[in-house]
Amino acid sequence: MSLLEVEGIDALYGDSHVLFDVSLRVEQNEVVALLGRNGAGKTTTLRTLMGVLKPRTGAIRLAGLPIHGLPPARIARAGMQLVPEERAVFGGLTVEENLRVARLTAGKPWPLDRIWEVFPRLKERRASRGRTLSGGEQQMLSIARALIRDPTLLLLDEPFEGLAPLIVLDLVALTRRLAAEGRTIVIVEQNVSAVLDLADRVYGFNNGHIVYEGQAADLRANPAPMRGFMGLAA
Amino acid sequence: MPSTAALLSQAFNGLALGSLLALVASGLTIILGTLGVLNFAHGALFAVGAYTAFVMMQATHSFVLALLGGSAVMLIVGFAMERLVIRHFYARPDEDQILVTYGIGIVLVEGLRAYFGGNSQRVPVPSWGVGATKLGFMIYPTYRLQLIGIVAALLVGLYLVLYRTSVGLVVRAGIENAGMVGILGIDVRRTFLFVFAVGIVAVGLAGMLYAPVVAVTPDMGASFMVQSFVVIVLGGLGSFPGAVIGGLIAGEIISLTSAFDSAYSEVMLYGLMALVLVARPQGLFGTEGRV
């Protein structure tokens, strides 16, 4: 049994059909990348997995438990955790308060000290309000807020977008470390070279359909298939 | 030019009015911030609170028991409103939410009128608040001083709940982004129910506490509601400190202007609101980008 099984989901934003018959699976300890152009359906897939968007048809199972149609809070308590593209840090709350909110309903939350170990920068800024953090710090806090819940499956939506190259290097290293520790991750990212380095497997999206499935190592060796869903050879 | 004594007296009146406005606006702004619902029934609920005090006082002859019993009634009203009506409107457009809460307000006010009649009712000043107190520089009605103290204590209590408890942490996070609170595993629907009920108890308590000072009529909440809207615009939508400071500023402006010419008190209030909207559209304590 795969950790995550998605079978034939369709999703709509109002009247516009955005996901068509999307099926995918994620194994325990695997890092899976969703690649595709803007608007291909990657973010929508993550939002549908998290329950923010309800799938019209199809089934989603997390560790065998059907989760489609459940509200996000129930899905989070089942062990899935989305780090959204917009980071969604609570700007009026301090760094520590942001983390405390996230811990409230977690089964086995990390102690704060473990977060400070992974993110020493956040420890320095623990009393600062979210809105005063830099973009990179906000992204760290957004990831930390997910990690403190010790999720069985982490969904990262464009974690490197809009950040300075040095910060991106830090976050890539962090993601690599999480993967090496055996954390299961689904990542959506435009930075193809960074993500191909991190991922074990890749799904290619085009116009709401999955058009490619393969090993990241194969794409690194031969990027030609990416023309089909990225419109470029990385 | 009014005398110094008259101005001081009006300043105290402003404090009493301002603290009540702060209590009413706190509930309104937290509900708006967390649930995204602008509760147009808030004024009617202020009157429901005052009438509850009237009925409870007749039954128990104790103002303290009336406040406690009245709070329990308002809690039930808040729970019922959220469960039966409001929760079905979270995903509906703003106009629908305004129409349904406005409609509830009309039903409540007309229900009060049908049951109690259109004539005003009197709630006696509690025995421990009768008379006037010498402050050294002036004499001021004792109950009004107590009113300021009680409301201040209630606001401090609300502050402690919001800033020192886990529930308050969730509410403050929910005011910013209720969707993200859900993604972090917290059942926001339950938080919404709690916030709505607390907001209704707050406005009900304001009505109960105000009842001994004025004539209790079905329409008594109307001006409070409009002024509370101004308060939350002044303070910043969804901001509790904004509601408190905004309430006090509004109370003082209304009362101090009345010392000169009461016809201008609302003009001054709206004038200040216009100024704040031009200089700082997000309000004194609001966050930029929030609407």
UniProtKB/TrEMBL annotation, chain A:
Coiled-coil intervals, chain numbering: none
Pfam family membership, one: ABC_tran
Family matches, as CDD domains: ABC_TM1139_LivF_branched (cd03224)
Keyword presence, RNA-binding: no
Domain ABC transporter: 4-232
GO molecular function, one term: branched-chain amino acid transmembrane transporter activity
Matches recorded under PROSITE patterns: ABC_TRANSPORTER_1, ABC_TRANSPORTER_2
UniProt xrefs under InterPro entries: AAA+_ATPase, ABC_transporter-like_ATP-bd, ABC_transporter-like_CS, BCAA_Transport_ATP-bd_LivF, P-loop_NTPase
One GO biological process term: L-amino acid transport
The keyword Protein biosynthesis belongs to this UniProt entry's keyword annotation: no
Keyword line: Amino-acid transport, ATP-binding, Nucleotide-binding, Transport
Family stated for the protein in its record: Belongs to the ABC transporter superfamily.
Protein name as catalogued: High-affinity branched-chain amino acid transport ATP-binding protein LivF
Native organism taxonomy: Bacteria, Pseudomonadati, Pseudomonadota, Alphaproteobacteria, Hyphomicrobiales
Automatic annotation (TrEMBL), chain B:
Pfam families the UniProt entry points to: BPD_transp_2
Keywords assigned by UniProt, alphabetized: Amino-acid transport, Cell membrane, Membrane, Transmembrane, Transmembrane helix, Transport
Membrane-crossing segments per the record: 12-33, 40-57, 63-86, 98-116, 143-162, 192-217, 229-250
GO CC entries: plasma membrane
Membrane topology: Multi-pass membrane protein
Chief place where the protein resides: membrane
Keyword Transmembrane: yes
GO terms for biological process, alphabetical: amino acid transport
Compartment(s): Cell membrane
Gene Ontology molecular function, alphabetical: transmembrane transporter activity
InterPro entries recorded: ABC_transp_permease, BCAA_transport_permease
Keyword Cell membrane found: yes
Domain of life of the native organism: Bacteria
Family: Belongs to the binding-protein-dependent transport system permease family. LivHM subfamily.
Name of this chain's protein: High-affinity branched-chain amino acid transport system permease protein LivH
Gene that this sequence comes from: livH_3
